[in-house]
Amino acid sequence: MIHVSLDDDKKAAESWAAKEGFPWPTVMKDNLERSGLGDYLPRGIPNYKLISMDGEIVAEGKGAVFQKVAELSKTEA
Amino acid sequence: MKLKHLLHVGIVALLGVGAVSARTWTSANGKNSFEGELKSFDKENNTVTIVYRNGRTVTFGTQKLSEADRTFLEENGKAAADAADPVDVEAALKEQKIGKPLAKKGILSRLEGEKFANFQLEKAPQYYLVYFSASW
User: Fold this and answer.
1) Is the CB of A57 inside 8 Å of chain B's CB atoms?
2) What's the domain range around A52?
3) What is the model's pTM?
4) In chain A, which among 3-42 make CB contacts under 8 A with chain B?
5) Tens-digit pLDDT profile for residues A12-61
6) Are B43 and B78 in contact (CB under 8 A)?
7) At what angle do helices A62-76 and B2-14 cross, to 10 degrees?
8) B24 touches chain A (CB under 8 A)
9) Which residues span the domain enclosing B92?
10) Same domain for B94 and B78?
11) Which of A16, B51, B58, B89 could form a disulfide with B135 if both were Cys (CB 3.0 to 4.6 A apart)?
12) For residues B114, B107, B22 and B4, what is the CA-based torsion angle, rounded to 10 degrees?
């Protein structure tokens, strides 16, 4: 999973991630456009998107995303 | 926590931190264990490199690991190391719309201890689970 932090304050984002023990790679807000993920910015947060390597949104929203993850996991198993 | 469990499933399933390489390791005396992803296994020199969950990478002799872990390395070490070949991963990411910009240096970071440090993807996944959030 890629975590996109929309915090303006990098230290606040870092403290929160450390407190929660986030193990995920993170894109900070100042790198959002360069990361290409700025094109997928949601209207509200928190938000989950499942995006194919070609840039297609496969699922959006927590329930839909994790349902699709489960389906894909079964397919790969 | 359920959410964290689900997110972990997402990482394992989609980011290629595969079931073969991410596992619980046990010390030779059986008294200690830790979670980490196998990064490489040098059979000739009997050393293994493991990435802890906090992102820290360590290399040590396989004699420090349990017999079960050493057997695992013998059976899966080469495949796991091949899967994580950085040259192949870099080339594969460059072919992706999503992976290409993420592979640029300085775009991704990950916690090392309590600080963010630069991070490079070690796999080229087919799908990316992206979680947008903020501390506030």
Assistant:
1) no
2) 43-77
3) 0.64
4) 3-7, 10, 12-18, 21-28, 31, 34-37, 40-42
5) 999 999 999 899 999 999 999 999 999 999 999 999 999 999 999 999 99
6) yes
7) 50
8) no
9) 87-118
10) no
11) A16
12) 60
